[in-house]
């Protein structure tokens, strides 16, 4: 059973309970008209105070029971609503983490969808849905009083159902337009707020507001139209409800004049009519909330189809670091051309591999596939023989170090970020990782040292500092597998030396290191070079064979790649080489 199945069956169970309670409250609603009839037809003619007291006690018991069930019903719905969010919010985020093709905003939107459904489940609108099947009770009582009253209310209700259907049709398109516009506007706003500084520097304030505003205006126009249509239908529904109640009174009065029914029965029937029509009226009034919640649930369902938080996978032994890539294909939705095109190669445990190639060749994508950040569309990435999908990701994370291309930190202190928020982290391990990354002294100079807060709302380290802190995080507890995506793109010469030293030490202790780089300086330490071009492998082999064919003469002159000696473990790198790897970019010379 998936998480979605668990959540929906929990809501279903709650709804069945609410449905039963709605049946009880519907029957109890008959107590007031019944009490009124008894008072007028029994107590007043007999002038019996005992009967009045007995009837009143019975009526109060009925009202109290009604009140209890009404409260209970809403409490059950509130709990079901909270359970829906509690059971699905985590899996929605989890599924988002697993699906590398989703962007950040779609994760937040799904969370909003979960909340929208939760709000609906806990609302009166769902209670009205549960009451609707009991309308026939009131209709049947009216039929029992007089067939004319029964026919009248039935016809009125048919008209109201037709109104509800027409309303649904009239509002369907508007609801879609409103939701699409609001989502689009939110995405634009979120992205501009995240990049406020760029907006400020480039003077894009008005453009940003205009782009967001035009979509938001569409949403607002759709909102006004929807509210107007809803109000019109709501007004008509009220009109129908009051007219029907008045008609019941009119027809009842006519029957009373004929002597067919007593006057008090006419009043009781009018009350019953009102009760019968209330749920329908409620449904018409909350139609857009119901439709929105249904669409939101469908989006949540689509995101979670087949998803279940897996029972812990069997923990495999610590990986040695043998990678086997088999016919690997990766593409994104909406694009015909794959980014990674059926490539196969292997990496030996303990090797250091440099992935190079022109911009857009697919280097970062390949690295992310190897690290398990993305899942392939076809083919396999096997680590020590096991498909990456079959590794226990939480266990595997302990053996992984990763510096992504765009480094960001989670809100917390530098120490917490380096330790990946491990609650059992020892200060010694954190400091050791920082020393390995050569930033211990730099961190000590920060306002609160290792306790300085970074990430959203905290201190903003420079680009180079970010890369070195991320390197410390990658080296925390000496992982076996290290993935570095252009880890020196913001580093100066000193940073390059620190990085080379750290990579060399990790290599010396047997780690498998895969790095993407555009600059030859890092290639000094690699064993093999994988040259990518347009999603395929153009060349893969020992550094000494591949590099001479792809490094620009300028950089070769400054530091001939053929002569670059791999530094020994712990040895700091030599001078920085500024040349760019010209792999496949045309004009490369050997
Ligand atoms: N989520 C995505 N949606 C659409 N296209 C994508 C996505 N991710 C990557 N691409 C495309 O895939 C191609 C390879 O991207 P990738 O980042 O792997 O290249 P790269 O070789 O690392 O480039 P660079 O050296 O510039 O970082 C690019 O053309 C990029 O536009």
UniProtKB/TrEMBL annotation:
Please name the GO terms that the record assigns under molecular function.
ABC-type oligopeptide transporter activity; ATP binding; ATP hydrolysis activity
Record key words, sorted: ATP-binding, Membrane, Nucleotide-binding, Transmembrane, Transmembrane helix
User: What is the protein named?
Assistant: ATP-binding cassette, subfamily C
Residues in ABC transmembrane type-1 domain copies: 16-292
A GO cellular component term found in this entry reads: type I protein secretion system complex
Q: What is its main location?
A: membrane
The listed locations are: Cell membrane
Q: Which PANTHER family match?
A: ATP-BINDING CASSETTE SUB-FAMILY B MEMBER 10, MITOCHONDRIAL, ATP-DEPENDENT PERMEASE MDL1, MITOCHONDRIAL
The record lists the organism as Afifella marina DSM 2698
Q: Where is the composition biased (Basic and acidic residues)?
A: 569-578
């Amino acid at each position: 059973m998936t998480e979605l199945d668990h959540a929906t069956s929990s809501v279903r169970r709650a709804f069945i309970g609410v449905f039963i309670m709605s049946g009880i409250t519907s029957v109890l609603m008959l107590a007031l008209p019944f009490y009124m009839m008894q008072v007028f037809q029994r107590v007043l003619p007999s002038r019996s105070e005992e009967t009045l007291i007995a009837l009143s006690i019975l009526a109060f018991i009925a009202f109290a029971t009604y009140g209890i069930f009404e409260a209970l019903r809403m409490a059950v719905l509130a709990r079901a609503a909270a359970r829906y969010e509690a059971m699905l919010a985590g899996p929605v985020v989890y599924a988002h983490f697993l699906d590398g093709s989703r962007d950040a905003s779609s994760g937040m939107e799904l969370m909003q969808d979960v909340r929208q459904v939760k709000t609906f489940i806990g609302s009166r609108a769902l209670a009205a849905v549960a009451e609707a099947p009991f309308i026939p009770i009131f209709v049947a009582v009216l039929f029992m009083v007089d067939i004319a009253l029964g026919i009248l209310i039935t016809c009125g209700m048919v008209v109201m159902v037709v109104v509800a259907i027409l309303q649904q049709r009239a509002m369907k398109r508007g609801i879609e337009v409103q939701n699409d516009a609001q989502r689009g506007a939110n995405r634009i706003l979120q992205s501009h707020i995240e990049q406020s500084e760029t907006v400020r520097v480039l003077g894009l304030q008005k453009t940003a507001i205009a782009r967001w505003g035009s979509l938001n205006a569409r949403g607002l126009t759709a909102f006004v139209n929807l509210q107007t249509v809803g109000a019109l239908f709501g007004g008509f529904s009220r009109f129908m409800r009051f007219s029907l109640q008045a008609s019941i009174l009119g027809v009842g009065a006519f029957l009373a004049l004929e002597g067919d029914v007593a006057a008090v029965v006419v009043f009781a029937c009018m009350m019953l009519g009102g009760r019968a029509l209330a749920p329908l009226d409620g449904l018409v009034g909350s139609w857009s909330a119901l439709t929105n919640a249904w669409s939101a649930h469908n989006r949540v369902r689509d995101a979670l189809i087949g998803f279940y938080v897996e029972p812990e996978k069997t923990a495999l032994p610590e990986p040695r670091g043998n990678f086997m890539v088999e016919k690997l294909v990766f593409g994104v939705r909406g694009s015909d051309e794959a980014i990674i095109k059926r490539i196969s190669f292997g990496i030996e445990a303990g090797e250091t591999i440099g992935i190079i190639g022109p911009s857009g060749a697919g280097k970062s994508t390949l690295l992310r596939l190897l690290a398990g950040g993305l899942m392939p569309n076809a083919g396999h990435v096997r680590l020590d023989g096991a498909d990456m999908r079959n590794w226990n990701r939480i266990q595997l994370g302990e053996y992984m170090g990763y510096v992504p291309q765009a480094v960001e930190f989670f809100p917390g202190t530098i120490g917490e970020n380096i330790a990946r928020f491990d609650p059992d982290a020892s200060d010694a391990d954190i400091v050791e990782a920082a020393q390995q990354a050569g930033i211990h002294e730099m961190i000590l100079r920060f306002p609160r040292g290792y306790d300085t807060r970074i990430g959203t709302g905290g201190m903003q380290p420079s680009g180079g500092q970010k890369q070195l802190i991320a390197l410390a995080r990658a080296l925390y507890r000496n992982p076996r597998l290290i993935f570095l995506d252009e880890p020196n793109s913001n580093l100066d010469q000193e940073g390059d030396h620190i990085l080379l030293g750290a990579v060399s030490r990790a290599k010396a202790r047997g780690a498998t290191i895969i790095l993407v780089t555009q600059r030859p300086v890092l290639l000094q330490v690699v064993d093999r070079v994988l040259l990518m071009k347009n999603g395929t492998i153009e060349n893969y082999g020992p550094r000494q064979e591949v590099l001479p064919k792809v490094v620009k003469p300028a950089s070769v002159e400054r530091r001939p790649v053929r002569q670059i000696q791999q530094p020994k473990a712990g040895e700091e790198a030599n001078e920085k080489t500024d040349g760019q790897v010209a792999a496949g970019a045309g004009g490369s010379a050997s």
